[in-house]
């Protein structure tokens, strides 16, 4: 009833407004990512991003406080979605630790196959390392990752008591493997073997090494 009244008055339903808001945000992230990959962060302005995303500067700043945050936060959001999708695709009958490790390996294979992606990962890693505020936002996303992954992992453990934290432990440990490996890789200037760094951590996670 309220929706029909709103439509009659020319007011968008709240669900449609939120969908449009999310799509604008996605356009901003896509524009920021593409421009930074093409030109480098120093040669891209907020105005450039807004123009490509077809939004005003005011709209940009309603979503992000800087061009750097648009790149880094967008990176984290996209990676979370991809990691959740990879985990959901793992067979239901395999051990939760293996399922989590295989989901991460799926992401790393994409990294190996794309030089552009490696360069972009290095760029965003350097931006995070150089900015306390972005590093703080990254840690906030780690908590988001942990919660979302734990929820997806929980059914793989069978019936769980409310106090059983194993899904969160596993999610947090897996993300620590990724974070520590990436931080080391960035510190080495992107010259190290990131897939090998991640793999050593995954082997430990799966119980292959003590």
Automatic annotation (TrEMBL):
Residues 22-82 form the HTH tetR-type domain. InterPro entries: DNA-bd_HTH_TetR-type_CS, Homeodomain-like_sf, HTH-type_TetR-like_transc_reg, HTH_TetR, MftR_C. It comes from the Bacteria. Keywords: DNA-binding. One of its GO terms (molecular function) is DNA-binding transcription factor activity. It comes from Streptomyces mesophilus. This is TetR family transcriptional regulator. PANTHER family: HTH-TYPE TRANSCRIPTIONAL REGULATOR PKSA, HTH-TYPE TRANSCRIPTIONAL REGULATOR RUTR. Residues 45-64 bind DNA.
């Amino acid at each position: 009833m309220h929706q029909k009244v709103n439509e009659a008055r020319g007011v968008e339903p709240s669900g449609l407004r939120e969908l449009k808001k999310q799509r604008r945000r996605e356009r901003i992230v896509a524009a920021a990512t593409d421009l930074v990959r093409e030109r480098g962060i120093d040669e891209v302005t907020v105005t450039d991003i807004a123009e490509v995303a077809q939004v005003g500067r005011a709209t940009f700043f309603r979503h992000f406080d800087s061009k750097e945050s648009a790149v880094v936060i967008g990176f984290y959001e996209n990676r979370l979605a991809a990691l959740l999708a990879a985990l959901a695709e793992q067979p239901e009958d395999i051990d939760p630790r293996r399922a989590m490790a295989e989901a991460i390996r799926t992401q790393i294979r994409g990294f190996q196959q794309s030089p552009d992606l490696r360069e972009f990962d290095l760029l965003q890693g350097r931006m995070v390392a150089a900015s306390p505020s972005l590093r703080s936002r990254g840690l906030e996303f780690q908590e988001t990752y942990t919660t979302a992954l734990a929820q997806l992992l929980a059914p793989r453990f069978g019936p769980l008591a409310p106090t059983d934290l194993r899904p969160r432990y596993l999610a947090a440990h897996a993300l620590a493997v990724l974070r520590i490996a990436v931080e080391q890789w960035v510190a080495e200037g992107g010259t190290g073997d990131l897939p090998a760094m991640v793999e050593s951590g995954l082997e430990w996670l799966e119980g292959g090494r003590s």
